[in-house]
Amino acid sequence: MPIIRQDNLFDMHELFEMEPTHRFNAIFSTIDLGPLLRIFDKKTHRGAPRELNYGAMIYSLIARVVERIPPIKLLVKRLKQDPFFRFDCGFLLSDDVPSEASYSRMIAAISETDALSKVQDVLVALAIQEGFITEESLAIDATHFEARDKPAAAEKKEKATPKKRGRKPKAEQAEWQAAQQKQEAEKTLYEKEIVHQLGASTEALVNEMPVAPKWGIKKNSDGKNTFWFGYKAHLAVSTISQYIIRGLMSSGNLNDGKAAIPLLKQIQQTMPGLFQAGILDKGYDYKPIYQQLQEMNLHAVIAYNPRREGEVVGFDEHFAPTCVREHAYRYDSYDAKYETLKYTRPKECATCPLKDDSLCQKIFKIKRSVDLRKYTSPARGSLKWTLFYKQRAAVERVNAYLKEYFDLNNVRHRTGKKAKVHFELVSLIYNASRLASDRLKVARNRALAAA
Fold first, then answer.
1. Mean pLDDT throughout 424-435?
2. Tell me: the pLDDT tens digits for 383-419?
3. Do residues 194 and 257 touch, judged by C-beta distance below 8 A?
4. I need a surface site. Which of 51, 147, 268, 274 has the fewest CB within 10 A?
5. 410, 70 in Cβ contact below 8 A?
6. If DSSP codes are grouped into helix, strand and coil, which group holds residue 372?
7. Strand, helix or coil at 47?
8. Alpha-helix runs per DSSP H in 303-413
9. Cα 245–250–256 angle (5° rounding)?
10. What are phi and psi of 15, to 5 degrees?
């Protein structure tokens, strides 16, 4: 079986070993600050000029992550004590070093807009234009990070009155059904089942995403529950180039599967037809996600998650049909026109005494519409499906890099809105470093070719 080789992020080591001035210039050159600077534009030309250099302040926030300076207090101290660092960030000799309060007000203003996501979109479009993101696949996964806020004490719940046993009277039944319908109508998109997301607009899905810090729970590698108070980062990553194509932040208690369709709809809206497959783990094994991938003409490569389902007679663990002697048929091909999977005889048929018997069927054809979860293209268990699924490691690698090297797990702001600014800024800086590194690699290769 061929080995999937992926570039290590720290082919970025060349970028991070450069002199600080050159490193900052390489990263800053990939970022268009236009959408961010427009937040602080004066509405009229009258009145006093702006006192703060907002462009330099934003660059200093980026340099803060690159240099791993977590608190704003230490950033301000570094700007005051290190003139070279101050000039690298774009401050002029005539500029005063901003206070912590100035940074706090700036971050609060950014948190009320979608400017950072627009800057991210421009950077990803630039990477596509320069040929660094090509026709590849998308890997989607979530990772958690803790909040700066303290969890509120849980409210004591009053004991519910015991329900009456038996069927409700007709008068009470109608009243109960009306109350249930009202309760369902009042739910947000993320409180309803995932299927409701298919008919919702991308804007509604993004705007209604809950971002308040909440308690989250997941099983670790030992099968034990781990808890955290904070958020989840949901990322859609290109599997070869390893750019963050789309990212969303949510409360820590949101089900991973409920963030997949919002991510996919955003990608469908901005860059349709660029990717081959959507690769996700078994936490995303929901029929609506398969339907969304099918609408985008992407192969659905999602690990199967059995839900109280018994053994299917006549099929193996990958849902390939089996013969009377329980040998699995081999996946042959997929007919996109008729959305049909074709299976041919098992290899054991060559020596089977029943090979010419009427019980032995030569070919099986199964429509995907029978069950989108079980019958995927490529088929489960096939070599192509396995090779696709191995590429999911790209998003796990990026999750680890964001936490270990880009300070995702070190939120210094309270409230979900400001934490979202931290998440979006970290994602942007990762992509900027990735693009700067790719440009350096191209320049080096050209220099070697010319020598």
1. 96
2. 999 999 999 999 999 999 999 989 999 998 889 999 9
3. yes
4. 51
5. yes
6. coil
7. coil
8. 383-390, 393-404
9. 75
10. -65, -45
* Identity of the residue numbered 237: V
Burial (Cβ within 10 Å: 0-12, 13-18, ≥19) of residue 318: middle
| Residue carrying the six token digits 């230490």 | 74
Distance CA 273, CA 72 (A): 42
Q: Do 149 and 414 meet the contact criterion of CB atoms below 8 Å apart?
A: yes
Contact 409, 146 (CB under 8 A): yes
Euclidean distance between CA atoms 448 and 200, whole angstroms? 51
pLDDT tens-digit series, residues 203-214: 999 999 999 999
**Cα–Cα nearest to 53, from 93, 11, 95, 14:** 95
One-character DSSP codes across 144-207: EEE-SSPPPPPPPPPPPPPPPPSPPPHHHHHHHHHHHHHHHHTS-TTTS-GGGGTTS-HHHHHH
* Residue 390 · residue 370 · CB < 8 Å: no
State the DSSP string of 55-120: HHHHHHHHHHHHTT--SHHHHHHHHHH-HHHHHHTT--TTPPPPPHHHHHHHHHHHHTS-HHHHHH
Place of tokens 């991210």: 120
| Tokens representing residue 8 in the block | 């290590």
Task: Report the chain's terminal Cα–Cα distance, integer Å.
Answer: 38
